[in-house]
Amino acid sequence: MEKKVEYLVSWLQKKVKEANVKGLVVGISGGIDSAVVAHLIKRAVPENSLGVMLPCKSHPGDFDDAMRVVESADLKAMTVDLTDTHNTLFGTITHVLDEEKMHNKANDQLADANLRARLRMSTLYTIATNHQYLVVGTDNKAEWHTGYFTKYGDGGVDLAPLVHLTKGEVREMAKYLGVPKEVIEKKPSAGLWEGQTDENEMGTTYDMIDRYLKGETIPEKDKATIEQLHARSHHKRDGIAFPKAYEDM
Ligand SMILES: Nc1ncnc2c1ncn2[C@@H]1O[C@H](COP(=O)(O)OP(=O)(O)OC[C@H]2O[C@@H]([n+]3cccc(C(=O)O)c3)[C@H](O)[C@@H]2O)[C@@H](O)[C@H]1O
Ligand SMILES: Nc1ncnc2c1ncn2[C@@H]1O[C@H](COP(=O)(O)OP(=O)(O)OP(=O)(O)O)[C@@H](O)[C@H]1O
Ligand SMILES: [Mg+2]
């Protein structure tokens, strides 16, 4: 584990140098993925690493966990509460959709949730610009493979150090780094609505996804779910679609 951590820390240092920036910033949710990234960026750039708590109608317990993470990593941190901003922006958008008789309320929960993730992204980039930092993402291998992230939200980052680690490997790294036990043991959640858990929403478990990614045999139903999630999310991993230049047709 020491070698794996050293590898990621030196990769982060290399990226900072190549980009000619001063440091790194990450959003701290109180979940395990951002906790691991918090520890990695602190090791990579001890004097120029920053964690940002971005509550948006979030559970207060998650904020307490985020504070525990920050303390465990001895990371510089700040809080920007996005609740009012989200209420104003989502309220304005839906008001106009109502007036135009275009409002599809069936999609409200997802649209509301993805706006939270994109407000976090915008906030992190505003802070990154202020500090001349890069924005570090927290997607692990399971989330990346299934597309379980908001495009240009939590997926809108400069660096993604955990993208080759299964959720199990993230857990092992978290233990090694000294992430608080309650954070390691809590159910993964995007925290985008009351009672949301990743596993309920995805329709399979991280254990199944990890086993699938390691090439192990898993039940047909879980395999089909994972393959469907993967097929539906190519556009998130492939980047922006461009036409061929007219001259090259
Ligand atoms: N084929 C295609 N080619 C190009 N673009 C395509 C496309 N199909 C959809 N799109 C675009 O992509 C959009 C859909 O993607 P997106 O906006 O990401 O939205 P979507 O994938 O529908 O939702 C995001 C999912 O990620 C979960 N999430 C989000 C944030 C954090 C976490 C977490 O674990 O913490 C989890 C969230 O709970 C939800 O299940 C469409 O609105 C459309 O604009
Ligand atoms: N309240 C929040 N404050 C700051 N950043 C947040 C917040 N909620 C989500 N994020 C950012 O979005 C990322 C994606 O969330 P995700 O839930 O996948 O990761 P996590 O909370 O760190 O771990 P877990 O998947 O175990 O819940 C977080 O790692 C974090 O960087
Ligand atoms: Mg979470």
Automatic annotation (TrEMBL):
Q: Which residues bind deamido-NAD(+)?
A: R118, K151, D158, H235, K236
Q: What are the residue boundaries of the NAD/GMP synthase domain, all occurrences included?
A: 5-237
What assembly does the database describe for this protein? Homodimer.
Keyword match Acyltransferase: no
Membership in a protein family: Belongs to the NAD synthetase family.
Q: Which Gene3D superfamilies match?
A: HUPs
- Reaction catalysed by this chain? deamido-NAD(+) + NH4(+) + ATP = AMP + diphosphate + NAD(+) + H(+)
Q: Is the keyword NAD in the record?
A: yes
State the pathway, as annotated in the record.
Cofactor biosynthesis; NAD(+) biosynthesis; NAD(+) from deamido-NAD(+) (ammonia route): step 1/1
The molecular function terms of the Gene Ontology recorded here are: ATP binding; glutaminase activity; metal ion binding; NAD+ synthase (glutamine-hydrolyzing) activity; NAD+ synthase activity
Keywords for this protein? ATP-binding, Ligase, Magnesium, Metal-binding, NAD, Nucleotide-binding
Q: One GO CC annotation, please? A: cytoplasm
The record ties this protein, via Pfam families, to: NAD_synthase
UniProt protein name: NH(3)-dependent NAD(+) synthetase
The residues that the entry says bind Mg(2+) are: D33, E143
- Species assigned in the record: Halolactibacillus alkaliphilus
Enzyme kind, highest EC tier: ligase
Coding gene? nadE
**Quick one: a GO biological-process term for this protein?**
NAD+ biosynthetic process
Taxonomic lineage from the root: Bacteria, Bacillati, Bacillota, Bacilli, Bacillales
Q: Per the UniProt record, which EC number(s) apply here?
A: 6.3.1.5
> Which NCBIfam families does the entry mention?
nadE
Instruction: Specify which residues bind ATP according to the UniProt entry for this protein.
Output: G27, I28, S29, G30, G31, I32, D33, S34, T138, K167, S189
**Function description:** Catalyzes the ATP-dependent amidation of deamido-NAD to form NAD. Uses ammonia as a nitrogen source.
